[in-house]
Amino acid sequence: MNKIKSLDDLRKMRLDLENGMDIREKSNSPESLVQIRVAMATCGIAAGARTVMNALIEKIEKEKIPAVVTQGGCMGYCYAEPTIEVRVPGKDPVVFGNVDAKVAAEIVDKYIKKGELIDGVIPTNYQTINEQK
Amino acid sequence: MAQYKMHLLVCGGTGCRASQSEEILKTLNAEIKNLGLENDAQVVMTGCFGFCEKGPIVKIIPDNTFYTQVKVEDCAEIVREHILKGRKVKRLLYEDPETKKHIEDSKHMGFYQKQLRIALRNCGFIDPENINEYIARDGYSAIAKVLGDMSQEEAIDLIKKSGLRGRGGGGFPTGLKWEIALKNKADQKYVVCNADEGDPGAFMDRSILEGDPHSVIEAMAICGYCIGASNGLVYIRAEYPLAIKRLQIAIKQAREVGLLGKDIMGTGFDFDIKLKFGAGAFVCGEETALIHSMEGLRGEPTVKPPFPAQKGFLGKPTNVNNVETLANVPAIFNKGADWYSKIGTEKSKGTKVFALAGKINNVGLIEVPMGITLREIIFEIGGGIKNGKKFKAVQTGGPSGGCLTEKHLDIPIDYDNLLAVGSMMGSGGMIVMDEDDCMVAMAKFYLEFTVGESCGKCAPCRIGNKRLHETLEKICAGKGTEDDLDYLQNLSRVIKDTALCGLGQTSPNPVLSTMEHFYDEYLAHVRERICVAGQCKALKLYTIIADKCTGCTACTRACPVGAITGEKRQPHVIDADKCIRCGACFDKCKFSAIHVQ
Description:
Chain A has helices at 7-27, 42-46, 49-63, 101-114; strands at residues 34-39, 67-72, 84-87, 94-96, 121-122. Chain A is α+β, with helices and mostly antiparallel strands. In chain B, the strands form 6 sheets. Chain B has a 5-stranded mixed beta sheet, with helices on both faces. A 4-stranded mixed beta sheet of chain B has the order 2-1-3-4, with helices on one face. In chain B, helix 9 (204-211) packs parallel to helix 11 (241-256), helix 10 (213-227) crosses helix 13 and helix 18 runs antiparallel to helix 19. The longest helix of chain B has 18 residues, at 459-476.
């Protein structure tokens, strides 16, 4: 291990190390972040959800977008796998279908950054018990 | 650092390790490798999450899934279902005791919602054996700031402004303590970390050292700079092997990167830390006794003054701070004195770590802002009393503290309010008692502890506490008189006024406070010879209700001392003189014919 010889060394070291802890820091305040959930059931994985998830994580990491990517179970839209659900704080969740790495990038650039919807939105037709009053 | 999509945090605190968390960690790793997910998921051993009641804990990041009571056999399911397919393992989720619903993530658990973690900020979050994770969370940036841009006086001033007070019990202002140590000039000074945690049921210092040792090391170095000391000593009890191991690893790592040793970060400041092991004597938590023990002498206190800040370890100025106090220090430098002093009450700033124990649903470690009420701690965070029983009292401050009752539930907790009602903050142990606990027996328990731990140097503590204990034993045995109650009160006051050190002066507190709040119970013991809670065995009277007894002889056979006699199919009788009140007959009787008074 390199010696920390100056205050700058420590700062540099911290910058290098921060990325590894990023996911944990973000999990500390999930409500203030964009939450992206990739449906990772068997059908989703078979349709390429893992590639989508990797692409999302890399992009968010690279562009320092305040978002956290988690995996979820099957949402039931097997005809449109891979599907991802995006929750922007303060807005209703939006589900996108037929996502591949390219579409994923588009979702980040257009929807998350600018709030513009793109093709492939699946209208929500369900309620979860958590939302029921 | 590599990028993982998921982190699996496994609790590596002493409690969870005792229920196989090490094997869980290994098995999770093996399963992840099996499925080829080693680039996606990382398993990390962390310090204590505080939710010891339901350990071992495995927390999945980033979705904050909180798995409780995980067994080695569950690991395959967690990896296959959750990590691979994104389906949470429902049966391992925490179930809300009231609504009976599974709670998906820790952010929605009542246990965590009211907590504010400063001293425990890294416990259950980072790997305590990896200095990189500490540095990534702003670790050692406080010492960098202090060494880089602050004079000794400025740094001490910041601590004074923050309002931090000693978390070991007394609540002495930390900044003032440092200032006194700075002003006493000497060729050598010492920074001592008091890790001799001795209160029954308290384990906050152990958990901090196990979960975040670097924060204590960093704070000691800051203190060293502030008071002008280059030597640090941690006095830790040898019965904390895991805390010692983690601290040793942390010190070694800090030395390797040059954060301990000569010329730290090129600023010319030297500081290093050594460990001193104690044999686990309660009195050695008292700072003068602690220093004598470190010098190789008997662990006995001496009269103050001289204070350690004047004449301490090896006769040199010494600053002694408790583990939890130190763990707050780096956070205060990073976030500022104003930030810290906004938390808490007027005279008690910041947060306090409490160890919840006794008859409470969520046994564990919590950190809450000062000024929170006992009701919030016990009923919201602690989840209420076990088995739906009624709350009776809570002992705060360990053997030096006192008990608080129903009427104190809404008092905002801080140093001064607790003292005003006859208890004290102490190191933060909270033992909760329900309707089945006898308060006389409780006072007896603490006195038994103090008698065992008294160093014997001064007569009031050595002899007085022994007499107190004997009198309490007499009352619990049903042989007490009303004179004994006066005797207890008088003797308690004498001990308080005349004992040499803090241990002796506070040891009668459990007696005085239980007598104040539960005098009726004492009276019932000596007048009617009744123990309301039914805990004092000698005061129980077992009789057989003749109408209900069928003469089945089951009790006769169960009685270990042959106190029950009677003909078959005829009502039996219990000989009260022979009866040892073991309750065996009561448990055996199928007809509820045994009456207990």
